[in-house]
């Protein structure tokens, strides 16, 4: 098939590919999909698809700020309906609403889709391009990119999957699998109500028959390489709050700092408590009774060895602005640490006066925003219980542990059909994918991979982006590197994957 | 004299006092001032004086925010001119401008005045009354108060001194001393350029002949008691900044928090460094080689014993929202600690994500805003040097120590004429003042008390206020407690003090 040789499916190469495809199509059996016709639709619909993504980005839903969640769910429902889902419902939870949708294609197989319609917070002052305008700009070394909040995390890839459904339909082809879509609006606060959505009887029943659940993603790195991840670490997000009120010492409101000589300080108390949570270098968790992480397995080590060799350490360092890995580890060992070690990270510190210059106050309250990443074998609830018990044992029982969200780690076997179809698709598209034991970032795959559903779960999609959770988040639309797929290539990668899954 | 029996000089009692005063005045020698006539002017000018203060509060100068410093200096200069200072100059410094003014009354003695025209930052959202409107509101238990930024710290008392000069002039009396005024606009950032102002040849020359320098203050507590303070602790304000850039480890920008497993954290580094600065309870400075504080002297202890007995511990605790002093000390011992112990206080913590909820970033930078209070015998520069050396020795040499301001402690002898005149005035006004070794709060008196000027320096003024540096800062205008002076009483206290100094 012509597309097997195409390492780049951009709109410019599609025209010539089309010529070949038309010839190929004529020779194809009736049962074979007319991929050339679908690809033609992808090209024709490019501007409409980009506009659809831009319109979506213009409506940010941010659970942490109680911003546009209802509107975001309604918009998600509309996008699903327009893409061909016949049954679309908004499901309320104790938090933000979710969306449940099914597309019955009359196919033999059914595939689950996990979407998020929420995005991370942003401060427009930090962006070089307005975060809601989703402008197309030239990014040196990458090509034409869309800059906007949600461009890569996760509206860009999700919209590309929806564009694939539009293209299949408009090419008068049959969607090769039935689809079950679950979308949530709280991913960025740790999915506190994802189980309420997924375990609803009608949702669970629909998912039970799927070959697994995947989330659309832009999985290529800047050089076009793709890893197939077999899971993700778990995460807990929480605030540690030291306050005069709860402590019974120090002031109940901010007082003049000169009083420090006779009044205790909740801010110092927070520092002293934080100090007990990690080793001197900040890198090893020292919480008493914390769940133990198993040693990295030989299988994981082997996967990391392959992956490390395939990735450009210097490029990653430059992207992150990092000169040395923890303990000056070599690249491969740093990656082993990444996939195998639990962490306690300070996301933010907030206490007393936080504006410009100084202000002579003794704060009555100080907060550390913390995230803890968990590896397989660790449970979110155990980690939180250990933290609370540790603080109590050290005499810091008054420090509040306010968990805002999180979930257990998730893992899927390499031989799961959902995963094998990814490998097959990627190889057919001319890529040389490699396995990755688990993402260090987290997503609530546990709700699919754990009991009672016990499904495979993962991410899939070509394309490249960056800046998730940061200013100037972007998705490459028209890449300068031919090994990287642009937006239309990402759309076609979903077409290919769905057909592979339908086999 | 009639006013000797008046324990309250409010506008309501002034009318009757006036009748007595007119009789007394007729009997007075030509050299005696007509205090009754001055008091009458104070009463008549009440509304104008209040308006003058309100207008001043409407123009906040905040050095930390680069807000209105030039305008504030010009306004200060205008206020001085209108109050009768013949020579008024705005003096530039390397920071914000100061004001230097002299009032030559042809008197035998000259008195120095230290003013600040700047105010502390404020967040209107935290106030129950707009901070720049200086509204008059009823405050339960206190009476009618003015709520506004600068109401007590320090525009209220300073405006009352200016009102005293207006009243003396409009009563056709002679100001009893010559005045030398130095006003700065950087007090709230630690007066980084006060020496540039005070040590200018013309300013130093004018100050050299004064009996000392005082700052107008609302010195009464809520029950009307007055202490005469003999000094103030020194202070250093600084930021400790941990950053990936300076450290050479960790990221150069905020990155995704999942990377904590392979990337070092500047936020943890800050916590670990902070942890070394104070004892486990946060109350004892543990900086290596930090200047030693001398043991509290017998004289200071005796002063504290008297003062503690005069002050209502429960009332102070309620005001501060404090249930226990450090180490559960008794009231007297807590006050001994207040006057004698150096401190390291966290004013603020700022790092990474500080908004609502969480955000999964690994911050590239974290900041602790610190103030350190110094007791006599300690020098600001020694304290900073010890801190830097401590951090370097512990391996934290990359953590920036950015000093924004501060000054040495200041001390004046109890037998200084400036102080003795305070005691005499307060006693004559029917009060029972007591000495206080030094304020735990700081002001740049060192620039007057240290070489080369070696002058006496202090604070003076009746009246009561609160909330300095906090929301709802206030000054009592018409007190419900007859032992507390309102605004007019404060004005008259300055009239009395100036005449006492002129003797």
UniProtKB/TrEMBL annotation, chains A, B:
Molecular-function GO terms, alphabetical: metal ion binding; peptidase activity
Q: Point out the signal peptide segment.
A: 1-30
Query: In terms of domain of life, where is this protein from?
Result: Bacteria
- List GO BP terms, alphabetically: proteolysis
What Pfam family does this protein match (any one)?
A: Peptidase_M20
Q: What keywords would UniProt list here?
A: Hydrolase, Metal-binding, Protease, Signal
| Residues of the Peptidase M20 dimerisation domain | 253-395
Database matches in InterPro entries: Cyt/Met_Dipeptidase, Peptidase_M20, Peptidase_M20_dimer
Q: Does the record bear Transmembrane helix in its keywords? A: no
Q: What is this protein called?
A: M20/M25/M40 family metallo-hydrolase
Q: What is the lineage of its organism?
A: Bacteria, Pseudomonadati, Pseudomonadota, Gammaproteobacteria, Lysobacterales
């Amino acid at each position: 098939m012509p597309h097997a040789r195409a390492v780049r499916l951009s709109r410019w190469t599609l025209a010539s590919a089309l010529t070949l495809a038309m010839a190929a199509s004529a020779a194809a059996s009736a049962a074979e999909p007319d991929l050339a016709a679908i690809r033609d639709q992808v090209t024709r619909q490019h501007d409409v698809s980009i506009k659809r993504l831009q319109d979506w980005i213009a409506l940010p839903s941010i659970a942490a700020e109680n911003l546009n969640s209802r509107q975001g769910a309604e918009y998600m429902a509309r996008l699903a309906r327009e893409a061909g889902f016949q049954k679309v419902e908004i499901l309320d939870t104790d938090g933000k609403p979710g969306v449940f949708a099914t597309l019955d294609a009359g196919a033999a197989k059914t595939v689950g889709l996990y979407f998020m319609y929420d995005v991370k917070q942003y401060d427009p002052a930090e962006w070089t391009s307005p975060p809601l305008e989703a402008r197309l700009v030239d990014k040196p070394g990458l090509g034409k990119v869309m800059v906007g909040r949600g461009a890569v995390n996760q509206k860009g890839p999700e919209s590309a999957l929806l564009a694939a459904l539009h293209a299949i339909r408009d090419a008068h082809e049959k969607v090769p699998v039935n689809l079950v879509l679950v979308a949530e609006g709280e991913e960025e606060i740790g999915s506190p109500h994802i189980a309420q959505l997924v375990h609803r009887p009608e949702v669970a029943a629909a998912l039970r028959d799927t070959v697994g659940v995947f989330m659309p993603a832009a999985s290529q790195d800047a050089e076009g390489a793709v890893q197939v991840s077999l899971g993700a670490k778990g995460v807990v997000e929480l605030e540690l709050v030291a306050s005069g009120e709860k402590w019974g010492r120090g002031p109940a409101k901010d007082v003049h700092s000169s009083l420090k000589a006779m009044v205790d300080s909740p801010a110092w108390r927070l520092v002293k408590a934080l100090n007990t949570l990690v080793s001197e270098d900040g890198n090893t968790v020292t919480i008493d009774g914390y769940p133990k992480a198993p040693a990295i397995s030989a299988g994981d080590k082997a996967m990391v060895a392959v992956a490390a060799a395939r990735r450009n350490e210097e490029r990653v360092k430059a992207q992150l602005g990092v000169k040395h890995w923890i303990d000056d580890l070599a690249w491969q060992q740093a990656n082993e640490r990444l996939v195998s070690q639990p962490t306690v990270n300070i996301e933010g510190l907030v206490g007393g006066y936080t504006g410009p210059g100084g202000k002579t106050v003794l704060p009555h309250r100080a907060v550390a925003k913390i995230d803890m990443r968990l590896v397989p074998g660790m449970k979110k609830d155990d980690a939180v219980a250990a933290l609370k018990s540790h603080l109590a044992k050290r005499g810091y029982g008054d420090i509040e542990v306010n968990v805002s969200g999180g979930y257990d780690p998730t893992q899927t076997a390499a031989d799961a059909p959902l995963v094998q179809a990814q490998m097959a698709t990627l190889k057919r598209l001319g890529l040389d994918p490699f396995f990755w034991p688990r993402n260090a970032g987290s997503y609530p795959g546990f709700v699919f991979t754990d009991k009672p559903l016990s499904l495979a779960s993962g991410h899939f999609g070509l394309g490249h982006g960056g800046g998730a959770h940061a200013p100037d988040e972007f998705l490459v639309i028209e890449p300068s590197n031919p090994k990287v797929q642009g937006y239309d290539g990402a759309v076609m990668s979903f077409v290919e994957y769905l057909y592979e899954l339908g086999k």
